[in-house]
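Recap quiz, item 2
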Amino acid sequence: MSVREARTYAAFGFSTTHAALDAERLLKDLGVPVTPIPAPTILGGALCGIALRLELSDVERAQTLLERAGIAVASSGEMQDV
Amino acid sequence: MGTPKGSTPVAYLDHGATSWPKPRPVVDAVVRALTELGGNPGRSAYAMALESSRAIFEARGACARLLGVAESRDLIFQSGCTAGCNLMLKGLLKPGDRVVVGSMEHNSVARPLARLERTGVEVVVVKADPTGLVDPDDVERAVQAAPTKAVVCLHASNLTGTVQLIGDLADVAHEHGALMLVDGAQGAGHLEVDIALLGVDAYATSGHKGMLGPQGVGLLYLAPGLDVEAQIEGGTGGGGSESPDMPTERPDRYEAGTANTPGIVGLGAAAALLAEEGPAQRHREAELARRLHEGILEIEGCRVLGPPPAVPRVPIVSAVHDRVDADRIAFTLDRTYGIATRAGLHCAPWAHETVGTLGCGAIRFGVGWGNTDEHVELTLRALREIVTS
């Protein structure tokens, strides 16, 4: 078993699971890699449900694409993850 | 055609109550949900729970595409059409409001309205004509009489098969500042339903009748921005769990509690199937219903309720005989011939009163998925034998 080094990622929180999955599908379809994760503590008041983890370098593009599609990001932040 | 064996009918003509048998893709989807999608959707991010969430997301999308709904989040999963009707009526109508409703409604609308009436909602019933059609001009006169919050009408009658002029009724409602609310239990699947084209504000439908999904699931469309008060509070799994109030975002606002994943996934498979085979299926079942209708009219003493055969209807053909009671006909059809039908009032006393059969009921033949020419021929022969014996 190897131990991977922690890195800094961005996390997007959504108000509903539907919105999170809508965002996941849209971003993956448009070539932005995202990983669904349990909503992390850094997202504050959204500690239940699913968030999306993505590379810091993809944040701006992802925000633009989601805004164009009318999918609201309820909260966002940076997190350490492996 | 064989003779009845066990409880499996030789000819199933109760599609107005629920469709049977379910198409194979629906059965396969339900089995997959039960065996592979065991996680609680919307709650966790482990792989199996995510797959459950994604399966519901995809099912919602398939239903939205089939029904002409632009944003799938505006399509709410309910336990059935009855739950959807209750939500749209109780979530919108408050004491002091006035509602205009057609006289062909099922109890899924009539009973919630009776309860609301006791809380101070004024309910004005517009009588349909003898074929079960609600005249938009009559509705307009009723709406003009006083400020009205909503017009309510079913899309198609579960008794007479009559298809209502929903687009015209929606125009009337909107011209006078009212909402248009529809019980589409017998509409979706049996009719090509495009909710955007109909221009309605809310449309509830069953998932297990013409939509061919499993029992225990239905849909409620709510127009964007329509503020309907949720009737059930509870866990939704998504963001904002720390709040004592339900989220304001759809669909979570109206979907508290663990979702019926097998039912929803099965309905999604049915919607995908209907997107492909719906037009051919609608043509087939309409043709069978027309032949059944014409054949019953040739049997002495039989009268068919609703519009004449040339007028399009959903594939429901209800009849009465001038000497033999409907319940006796239904019983003999089942026990002697293995033909499943439904006699009685069909949970629609308003409709029976409208067409003059409240005292005697009727026998209803509901045509749908899986029915054949042989089913129609057997039924006509059996009916002829029963009423002449």
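Residues 261-297 of chain B form the longest helix (37 residues).
Chain B touches chain A at residues 41-45, 50, 53-54, 57, 60, 72-73, 236-243, 247, 249-252 (CB under 8 Å).
End of item.
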